[in-house]
Design a protein that fits this description.
Elements: H1 37-48, E1 52-53, H2 54-57, H3 63-68, E2 73-76, E3 80-81, E4 91-92, H4 102-113, E5 117-122, H5 133-146, E6 151-155, H6 165-172, E7 177-179, H7 189-192, H8 198-211, E8 216-223, H9 229-241, E9 246-251, H10 268-280, E10 285-288, H11 298-315
Helix pairs in contact: 4-5, 5-6
């Protein structure tokens, strides 16, 4: 990975202005309210196991579709985050102590839902020495024990304040996909992701590949926050320099009026252009649509990702 200079924030007037008028939401970003029996069944199973999901905490627009199919993204280590990113609706504050029985409850829910593929994410836990790495590893092992055939995708925090051994704990537990989102272009980090560091996150993804070259890596971006198209393409290049396999790009939606403003709604045609550019840069898998989220259609996308790697190996 080449040494890149962090650009200055070029749009201070566009930064965090939650009170400004929002552009009208276009038809292509609208979704139906969840009402299906499958949605209710998934909700009941999660509630019975006292589990938190990022689907609810982040106000994901795809929750109705995903839960109706029995798919949910488990959010471990509580509902309170130690960071205060301006795009995220998860509460910020002092988290509770870790629940030692949570990995088992997650595994039980995965088994009950009959998931072929599961995504596990978490809040940031800067209060813990290892950032929650061992808790991630225990959750992966618990799922493997109860549902050996289930493939596991993790979406981790950046472990910014931890020793290198924290990341090693997670990789040694052998998830099938290691996801860590860069979220936005580096110039917008001060206003969007102030507690994080762009090049640390990039290096984290690169380090996963160094620890286990066979492990799939994945990262995602939101657009509509004030970034320029050239900046998005530069992030694609940075990801490829870190050997990231799978890129997701989706439209940012403001969770509440207190959060970072939506500067614009990116058109489906622009998303298609990003997809074409990303494949041209060598990503094995790309999902770039207005409603794309890290775990949206994750199981189907993982199957396509594996197939793409096999095709690449056959051509080599």
């Amino acid at each position: 990975m080449r040494d890149l200079k962090l650009p200055d924030q070029r749009h201070p007037e566009k930064a965090h202005r939650p009170d400004q008028a929002q552009p009208k939401k276009p038809d292509w970003i609208r979704v139906k309210a969840p009402t299906s029996a499958g949605y209710k069944q998934t909700r009941d199973i999660l509630k019975a196991n006292r589990l938190v999901t990022v689907c609810e905490e982040a106000g994901c627009p795809n929750v109705g579709e995903c839960w109706s199919q029995g798919h949910a993204t488990m959010m471990i280590m509580g509902e309170i985050c130690t960071r205060g990113c301006t795009f995220c609706n998860v509460a910020t504050g002092r988290p509770d102590a870790l629940d030692q029985f949570e990995p088992g409850r997650v595994a039980h829910a995965v088994e009950t839902l009959g998931l072929a593929h599961v995504v596990v994410t978490s809040v940031d836990r800067d209060d813990l020495d290892d950032g929650g790495a061992e808790h991630f590893a225990q959750t992966i092992r618990a799922i493997r024990h109860r549902s050996a055939a289930t493939t596991i995708e993790i979406l981790t925090p950046d472990f910014l304040k931890c020793a290198p051994e924290a990341l090693e704990k997670v990789v040694e537990a052998r998830p099938d996909v290691f996801n860590h989102n860069l979220e936005t272009v580096p110039g917008l980090y001060p206003s969007v992701r102030p507690g994080a560091r762009y090049f640390h996150s990039l290096r984290l993804l690169q380090r996963v590949k160094e620890l286990d070259p066979a492990m799939f890596t994945k990262s995602g971006l939101m657009v509509g926050l004030g970034e320029e198209a050239a900046e998005v393409r530069q992030v694609m290049d940075d990801m490829r320099s870190a050997d990231v396999d799978f890129l997701t790009i989706g439209q940012y939606l403001q969770p509440t009026p207190k959060h970072h403003a939506v500067l614009r709604f990116v058109t489906p045609e622009e998303f298609k252009g990003y997809e074409t550019a990303a494949y041209g840069k060598g990503f094995l898998m790309v999902s770039a649509t207005p409603l794309t989220r890290s775990s949206y259609h994750a199981g189907d996308d993982f199957a396509r990702l594996r197939a793409a790697r096999l095709q690449k190996l056959d051509r080599a």
